[in-house]
Design brief:
Layout: E1 2-9, E2 15-18, H1 26-47, E3 56-60, E4 63-70, E5 73-80, H2 85-99, H3 104-108, H4 117-128, H5 136-143, E6 153-156, H6 157-184, H7 187-223
Parallel strand pairs: 3-6
Antiparallel strand pairs: 1-2, 1-5, 3-4, 4-5
Helix pairs in contact: 2-4
């Protein structure tokens, strides 16, 4: 069963449209916001080229995110892990065909998440045809020798999250020395050094002379002079 669908722009990772939620029980209803956040995270990873632009399946819990990318737009769905991948591909390809009927220039102007509301109803209408995998139409699709690309790469969401965390950690490490060098190489620090270095040297020399004179005076006193 297709439970969640997100259509997003690859260039900036902005989610453009979604279908209404479809969950069976209270537990899944509670997790729906989590699944949605995970879908948005995947979209962002695609936009930053951390995930391929080819067909992909991402496993999470007992579900799978499946996505395809067509003309800079990502079509993603969340299904039960048992849902036939072949049907998922038909579903996403059908969404992509419907999307092509819209003026891309208007869609490029969208700046707010999920504001392409008109496509949400289209998603819902197409999804209805893929709810029951045993319908004659869907069985025919499953048995057909289609020419569509069904070679989905597969990965666990946990691995993608770990890779993202490592990337962020490396970014922080590489940026830290640069930040420090900018401080020490700043013009203000150079001015401060030129101003206070002579004063520091004079103070240090004066302290040594004072210390030496005190020692010399103690030696004279000890000798009886």
């Amino acid at each position: 069963m297709v439970k969640l669908t997100i259509v997003g722009r690859v260039s900036d990772g902005l989610p453009l449209a979604q279908c209404p939620r479809y969950v069976n029980d209270e537990e899944e209803n509670d997790n729906f916001s989590t699944y949605k956040q995970q879908g948005e995270f995947i979209l962002k990873e695609i936009s930053r080229a951390a995930l391929p632009l080819t067909n992909m399946t991402i496993r999470v819990d007992h579900h799978c995110f499946n996505y395809i990318v067509e003309n800079g737009i990502c079509f993603m769905s969340l299904c039960d892990s048992s849902y036939p991948r072949k049907l998922v591909n038909y579903y996403l390809q059908e969404l992509a065909k419907e999307y092509q009927k819209f003026d891309s220039r208007l869609i490029e102007r969208i700046t707010k998440p999920y504001s392409f509301v008109g496509f949400g109803s289209i998603i819902g209408n197409i999804r209805r045809h893929y709810v029951d995998t045993r319908t004659q139409t869907n069985l025919a699709k499953l048995n057909a020798k289609c020419q569509q690309n069904l070679d989905f790469m597969t990965e666990d969401l946990s691995q993608i999250v770990k890779r993202r965390n490592r990337s962020e950690m490396l970014d922080r490490i590489t940026q830290a020395p640069e930040h420090i060098s900018q401080i020490w190489g700043s013009k203000n620090l150079e001015i401060i050094a030129l101003k206070w270095t002579p004063i520091t040297i004079l103070t240090f020399v004066g302290a040594i002379l004072l210390w030496t004179s005190l020692i010399f005076r103690d030696d004279l006193a000890f000798a009886g002079f």
